[in-house]
Amino acid sequence: MKPLHVAFVWHMHQPYYKDDVTGSYILPWVRMHGIKDYYDMPALLTDFPDIHQTFNLVPSLLKQIQDYVEDGATDKFLSLTLKPAAELDREDKLFLLKNSFMANWDTMIKPYPAYWQLLDRRGYSVSPNDLQNAIRYYTPQDYLDLQVWFNLTWFDPLFKNNDPLIKGLIQKGSGFTENEKVLLIQKQREVMALIIPEYRKLAEVGRIELTTTPFYHPILPLLYDTDLAKVATPDIHLPANRFAHPEDARAQLDRAVEYHEKLFGSRPAGMWPAEGSVAEEIIPLIADAGTASPGRAPCATSGLGRTMSTRGSGTTYSFTVRATNSVGQGPASNALSATPATVPEPAGMPAVAASARIRAAQAASGRWAGSLFRRAPITVPSGPADRVGGGSECTMLASTAIGLPSPSKGPRPSTAA
Question: Percent of the chain beyond pLDDT 90?
Answer without folding.
Answer: 65
